[in-house]
Amino acid sequence: MTMSETGKTLIRGAKVLGGEVRDVLIDGETVVEVGTGIEAGGATVVEAAGRILLPGLVDLHTHLREPGREDSETVLTGTRAAASGGYTAVFAMANTFPVADTAGVVEQVWRLGREHGYCDVRPIGAVTVGLEGRKLAELGAMHDSAAAVTVFSDDGKCVDDAVIMRRALEYVKAFGGVVAQHAQEPRLTEGAQMNEGVVSAELGLGGWPAVAEESIIARDVLLAEHVGSRVHICHLSTAGSVEIVRWAKSRGIDVTAEVTPHHLLLTDELVRTYDPVYKVNPPLRTERDVTALREALADGTIDIVATDHAPHPHEDKDCEWAAAAMGMVGLETALSVVQHTMVDTGLLTWEGVADRMSFAPARIGRAEGHGRPVSSGEPANLTLLDPAYRGTVDPAGFASRSRNTPYGGRELPGRVTHTFLRGRATLMDGKLA
């Protein structure tokens, strides 16, 4: 593909949502025409026969690590990874150093995104000062800052104090924000190394019981109902959690939930290898849980897929299991895993993927300009995917600074070939622009 000097791009013959084959003309930052037989002299032409054109993906749960842990990831490298995976917006979690618990820190992350980002970066503000769970952070100041924070989370830690959680829900209700909860009752997971079950018993590793997640979710949906506020459940991982969220939604409680790609595919059986790449928070669960999560994502009980992209330097993962950090990178493989687990199995259509990975996360996080249909007059935030591609995951080729993927050497379907951020190609023919 040769770039045009006119600022126009013509995507020719792509399958848009609904399965129709269409040409899409981008002029500047906007989609200006969708149809057939479009002619645009001087435009950059992307031949897209057999490919699927999706609205740009939005990740509500990304760890960019900057400021403070640039050895793991930076805003630049993390957003390059996002663009490689088809993302046009990511929400950056607050567990940085210093913690993003003030207007100054969230504005720093926001400005880094504007200056260096290959996608839009929306900072997530901490719920409590220093993620310590004792005192509310400057929620209003972060919302009123240039970063305009709408999502607040102590992710990596649970807001386990019920009074603090209630006050946070009350506070964000005033400006339409949402608290994203890392559901983990800390006393129930002291010394935990993996999912509590048959495998943990056989391996002699400390177990992480499902009830540690489920009890916090049950408490928080009731608090959200009492307050009349919004709560979002991060990285839901158990069949029991699915049932609690399903019950809460049936009562009209304003709760949303996410599932990660790795919890849709991997199980605790992999821990038998003692490979720390499979060590993650929450832990990999059982095949029964995986099945329940897929079904819940398909029927809408789980609203979105979020990566929980958690980069770590080599030395933090290439060590014994007990000492290893928890987390996996996921931005560059998420869409492939979702195709493998949800589309190729018949559980979701591509329209469903667009909803779970673009429309719904943009709506939950209130990411203006993202999660919009591919139609005339809309911002040109777009992702072009080749669904017929099959390839082996090679971490050495990642744009992320970290390589802690559980999919290295595994064959996965689908390949993002182009990503457009407001009409600008950030990924062209599979290569970063």
TrEMBL record:
SUPFAM superfamilies assigned to the protein according to its UniProt record, in alphabetical order: Composite domain of metallo-dependent hydrolases (SSF51338), Metallo-dependent hydrolases (SSF51556)
Cofactor: binding details: Binds 2 Zn(2+) ions per subunit.
GO molecular function: allantoinase activity; dihydroorotase activity; zinc ion binding
Binding, Zn(2+) 2: D155, H182, H235
UniProt cross-references to InterPro entries, sorted A to Z: DHOase (IPR004722), DHOase/Allantoinase_Hydrolase (IPR050138), DHOase_cat (IPR024403), Dihydroorotase_CS (IPR002195), Metal-dep_hydrolase_composite (IPR011059), Metal_Hydrolase (IPR032466)
Catalytic activity: (S)-dihydroorotate + H2O = N-carbamoyl-L-aspartate + H(+)
Domain Dihydroorotase catalytic: 50-238
UniProt superkingdom: Bacteria
Key word Lyase present: no
Cofactor: Zn(2+)
EC number: 3.5.2.3
Gene Ontology cellular-component annotations: cytoplasm
Residues that bind Zn(2+) 1: H61, H63, D155, D308
Enzyme class per UniProt: hydrolase
Cross-referenced Pfam families: DHOase (PF12890)
Keywords: Hydrolase, Metal-binding, Pyrimidine biosynthesis, Zinc
GO biological process terms held by the UniProt record: 'de novo' UMP biosynthetic process; purine nucleobase catabolic process
Active site, per annotation: D308
Pathway: Pyrimidine metabolism; UMP biosynthesis via de novo pathway; (S)-dihydroorotate from bicarbonate: step 3/3
Binding-site residues, substrate: H63, L64, R65, N95, N281, H312
Family matches, as HAMAP family: PyrC_classI_B
The protein's role, per its UniProt record: Catalyzes the reversible cyclization of carbamoyl aspartate to dihydroorotate.
Family: Belongs to the metallo-dependent hydrolases superfamily. DHOase family. Class I DHOase subfamily.
Protein name as annotated: Dihydroorotase
Organism of this sequence: Streptomyces pacificus
